[in-house]
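It would be a great kindness if you could assist me with a short task in structural biology. I am sending you one protein, given as its amino acid sequence and as whole-number tokens for its backbone shapes. I would ask you to consider whether the tokens describe a fold that such a sequence might reasonably adopt. The full record is reproduced below for your convenience.
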Amino acid sequence: MLMDPTIALARAVVMSPLVCNTWSVKSTDGTPEDRVSFIEDMIDPMTRHFVRAMLRSLDYGWAGFEKVFEVSNGRWTLKRLKPLLHDITQINIDSNGKFQGFKQSSTDLPREKALLFTYDREGDNHYGRPRLENIRETWSWWKQANEGAARYDRKIAGVMPVIHYPPGKSIDKSGIERDNYEIAKGVLDSIAAGHGIAVPNRKAMEDDSDGKEWSIELMEDKGGRQPSFIERLRYLDSLKFRGYLRPERSALEGQFGTKAEAQTHGDLGLLDGEQLQSDLAETINWHVVDQLLVLNFGEDARGSVYFEPNPIQDESRTLAREVIKGMTATPDGREFLRVYLDFEQISEMTTLPTLPDAPDQSDNKLVDADNPAKSIMDELESTVTKG
């Protein structure tokens, strides 16, 4: 299923924003700086790695890791979060359904060295429910429809010859009298092999055969039923996207609807992505960051430092860009921006480049803020006069 092009696209639409997003380290008031830097230096380099691996839970329902610890400079450090293969890993639970680690063959990994992320868990079912289950039946229907379309294409790719022959016998080219059925089969074999055949033309002579002469016709499909297959395959592709919890208009080509509807579909995807990020952060903070804090700084350090994913879409940055775009369309708007806004801060917020040695324009007002229209006309008149 993962090799299906539409499913692969749906996975990329869901996972790429989460994998490429950045995370920030936060702390509670009064937390010593050494704790913050200790956690940040250790977890930050592996953020993209474990986010990508954790998102495998969307395909399998869960993702398991081995925590590889080592002692460095007198502190317990996390050397690696090693992803475990689903095919050879079993989740261990106790009699109450509580997670107790993993098992591979005869080797048990204790809970203290294990990390489990479960997607869409129901009760104590630690194996979760993958999103691929939403589209398994749809994928099967798509395969059947595609195979049917392929059979139809093969069928109409050529023509089927039909030979009408009179009952009885005839003399073949070697002068031997044979049944007309056998002669007709030989003619069909010649057509299939691409050889030419000869048929007498009875129009040049008096026809006394009462319509029982030899004739050949070609049967072919002229209905053009491919569009019905295409529509069904397109519909099933849409269901695949929906089953992976993304509206199809967020990535597939659209035919109908408005831009506002497409924006709504995109917003739904953002909400789902934010929820996934929150679940990932909760797992990392509870079962990795807190464990490192307790091991190195004691139980009181639990929860004092935590990782938090940045918003997938920064609304303030988007708003700033839209405001600047709209106001730079008019002279008055540009002057308002120059007089009242802090361009250095805007540059940092919108990632717009600025020159390191740019001159201070705060006192170089080309336009009078009290009467921008008049000052613009004065400047234009001055320019024309000088010219």
In short: Residues 259-297 form the longest helix (39 residues). The CA atoms of residues 222 and 363 lie 78 Å apart. Confidence is low (pLDDT under 50) at residues 363-369.
